[in-house]
Amino acid sequence: MSELKGNTISTLPSNILKGNYDRNQLKCGIAHIGVGAFHRAHQAIYLDKVLSSTGSLDWGLVGIGLLPYDAPMRDAMQAQDCLYTVTELTPKAERTTKLVQCMTEYIYAPGNHEAVVKRLTDPAIKIVSLTVTEGGYLMDTRGNFQLTHPSIVSDLQNPTLPQSTFGILTEALARRKASGTGPFTVMSCDNLRHNGDQARKALLTYAKNRDQELAAWIEEKVTFPNGMVDRITPATTPQLRTELNQKSGVNDLAPVVAEDFIQWVLEDNFCAGRPDWSVSGVTMTNNVTPYEEAKIRLLNGSHQMLSYPAFLTGLRRVDEALKEPLFRTYLENFLNQDSGPFLQDIPGMELSSYKKILLERFSNEAIGDQLARLCLDGGSKIPGFLLPTIKANLEKYGRCPRMAFLLAAYNRYIHNLKDDNGEAFELREPNAMALLQPIIDSSDPLDLLKNHDLLGDSASHPEFVKEYLRFHEEILKNGTRKTLENLDSISPPTH
Fold it and tell me: 65-112: per-residue pLDDT in tens?
């Protein structure tokens, strides 16, 4: 099996696809915070294509890990000169493995946050991109940045020694302003509505509470393009890593697997220049909103709708759930009756076709996407991925049975910590545990529905409350699967 290092690129197996640029000549123009599997299978793939297509050497990538759990990524990237492979799998299990070469540095921040700030002050850095998860923007459901979050309180008390994402960005921009270097673009690549606007609001709120003059400069000079990103990228387990490496013939400490579908719609709003993203297939536009609304409500919404009910029945893979008519029909009805009617076709995205493709993507056995991944961080995902659809249905019909059932299943999931077969699992809510803990500590099922940060004013709709409580009791009495089988008889469809 071939080792993966900078000096072994030319000797890698012939089945490994490689870009045709000299990475040794790259100058880093982009810094990325949050180098997880999705970033490496999405933005970095596009960037690798840009570098191969244009010959530009100014847009290399420096990766940044801010959190202690980024240590394994640091170790892998240091060991193999920031190289890694991405294996793309079609629904027919056809595979293509690519070597990604665009990242040439990796900085691990814990214990050395100053190194990150210094790197971001380099005039060569024109873009700082983010995948810090939905919860990483520290927004409540009212859209307010949480200034009372412990990391923000700490950074505002020690603004020149920051450790949080927005504290670090602000300090780097403060130094660039002072030195006359100029701004960089902050480019969010996270799965949330108006991700650039969210990043802008978070950064400006933090900056205004640190230094009003600096905040005014940031507001005038820094741009925050919105973007819609899409690619199913399962977590790489040790077993999957071994399998990927055996098939590729490369001993990769951090391989990534992804579906063959990939999409990025990006607002053309960059204050300091950008790569020619369009040559790699990125859709550049002046209005991302219709694309992100469709993707978040349909794809991410469907993921949340499937996650807890399927997991509680004992299923562990998305494709296994889609094989069952019960879950496939449940998702089809959500797409066609609950979510889809509130959306419209947009250029390049015809919704009836998009919905069919979604179910095909979910059914990809070769990917074997894990339901546990979809269950992760529900307290942060539900407000963004489902609440707008819940609100739309409540405004029109006063209730929405399928989403009442989903919330009852989620309530069961966070309280019981066992599926319906008695198998225990770990509750993983890295960003919303403070929000959920009072709900978990309570025996009143309505505390979930009454939590405004999680579900807005959903509890003010009496029929919705009634159907939620009916589903709660049915799940307790008969289990999740039987409740879903009888969903329409428990609470008839709205239309």
Answer: 999 999 999 999 999 999 999 999 998 889 999 999 999 999 999 999
Q: Rounded to the nearest 5°, which phi and psi values hold at 110?
A: -50, 125
Average pLDDT over residues 244-257: 97
Would you tell me how many other CB atoms lie within 10 Å of the CB of residue 266? 25
| Angstrom distance (rounded) from CA 242 to CA 317 | 19
Residue 367 in tokens: 């990917």
Quickly list H helices, 183-316.
195-210, 212-221, 238-248, 289-295, 301-312
Are 448 and 395 in contact by the 8 Å Cβ rule? The answer is: no
| pLDDT for the residue 279 | 96
Torsion of Cα atoms, 220 then 139 then 198 then 67, to 10°: 90
Cα gap 436→444, rounded to integer Å: 13
Round to whole Å and give the CA distance between 42 and 37: 9
How would DSSP label each residue in 334-395?
A: IIIIIIGGG---BTTB-HHHHHHHHHHHHT-TTT--BHHHHHTTHHHHHHHHTHHHHHHHHH
Q: How far is Cα 329 from Cα 344, in angstroms, rounded to an integer?
A: 22
Q: What is the mean pLDDT of residues 298-325?
A: 97
Question: Which pLDDT belongs to residue 490?
Answer: 92
Q: Name the burial class of residue 148, with classes exposed (0-12), middle (13-18) and buried (19+) by CB atoms within 10 angstroms of its CB.
A: exposed
What value does the mean pLDDT take over residues 115-122? 98
For residue 71, the Cα-to-chain-centroid distance in whole angstroms is: 20
